[in-house]
Specification:
The structure is a single chain. This protein is mainly α. Among the domains are: 50 residues, no CATH class; 75 residues. Helices cover 61% and strands 2% of the residues. It contains 5 helices and 2 strands. A hairpin with a 2-residue loop joins β1 and β2. α3 packs antiparallel against α4. The two termini are 22 Å apart.
Length: 180
């Protein structure tokens, strides 16, 4: 979504609108991300601590590195972790309502399309096609299955947010660093 100069705001908005159609700010948090050009270690000169051995330069360097790492974490990662944690509800995630709405729309739209295809096919022969109970039952069954699957996927998403296991993201990131 982002390049070297930071995330593309339009792409971020499109993703948020897709996954979180509810615009009520009370319903969900907003991640705050400072950007990827931040270098936490820019102000640390490792050679500036070696002037006097009695000053324990190594300890001071180590302390400054820990401070820089903590600042980096608090600036770049903690806000996103807090946002993801705020998405968890008692029964799933805040994205469930939007997912269920999209599932309903997809199933009912597909049912309408199939009925239209059948109607046009019958009209070619001069017949009228009344919706059958079989089509209605098939649509209801598909809708129930789709909604159940959507709830199961949301439960998986909630579990991944709670445990921090996002489908191998950490493993993929580690493999990328090794050139795999």
């Amino acid at each position: 979504m982002g390049g070297r100069n930071g995330p593309n705001n339009n792409a971020i908005q499109e993703v948020e609108n897709f996954y979180f159609p509810n615009t009520d700010p009370a319903s969900r948090g907003t991640p705050q991300y400072s950007g990827s050009s931040y270098n936490a270690y820019a102000g640390i000169n490792p050679y500036g601590y070696s002037s006097n051995p009695e000053d324990m330069g190594g300890d001071k360097l180590y302390a400054d590195l820990i401070r820089a790492q903590t600042n980096d974490y608090m600036t770049r990662y903690a806000p996103i972790e807090n946002f993801l944690a705020s998405e968890i509800t008692a029964t799933g995630t805040k994205a469930l309502a939007g997912d269920l709405s999209r599932t309903r729309s997809a199933v009912t739209g597909a049912s309408t399309n199939i009925q239209g295809i059948q109607n046009r096919g019958m009209e070619r022969f001069g017949l009228s096609n009344a919706p059958s109970n079989q089509n209605k039952m098939s649509t209801v069954g598909t809708l129930v299955g789709g909604l159940n699957d959507t709830r199961a996927r949301d439960s998986d998403r909630r579990e991944a947010l709670i445990t921090g296991s996002f489908g191998g993201i950490a493993q993929n990131a580690a493999a990328t660093g090794r050139g795999v």
